[in-house]
What does this fold into?
Amino acid sequence: MSCLNRSLNLLKAVMRHQIIPKANISAKPAKHVLSAGEQVFVMVTMFVTILGPSGWVLANLEEYKKRPGGAA
It folds into this structure.
């Protein structure tokens, strides 16, 4: 049991020197509430920006395979 206590004391000593900043968490409501239209616009923009190029590559995959420098 004393080995466990020494281990815990060592762990506490190590953790004491590691300063971790606390996050600023606020429970206040948003200063500017987004309307449903704004939320839809942002979601569609993110969808097109992230998934658009991936869909293009997958749709043209056979064409990319036929290129001389394409995958074997």
User: Anything to note?
Assistant: The first helix runs from residue 2 to 16. The mean pLDDT is 83. The chain has one domain: 1-65. The helical segments are 2-16, 36-59, 61-66.
